[in-house]
Amino acid sequence: MEPITNNSDLETQINNAIENNLSGRMTILAALLAVQDDIGYIPQKALEIVSELNTTTVNDVWGVASFYPNFRFDPPTEHTIEICWGPSCHITGAQDIIKSCLTELNLETEGDTNDGFINFKFNTCLAACAQSPVGSVDHKIIGRLNKKKIIDLINNLKSQKK
Ligand code: FES
Question: How far is the CA of 144 from the centre of ligand 1 (A)?
Answer without folding.
Answer: 11
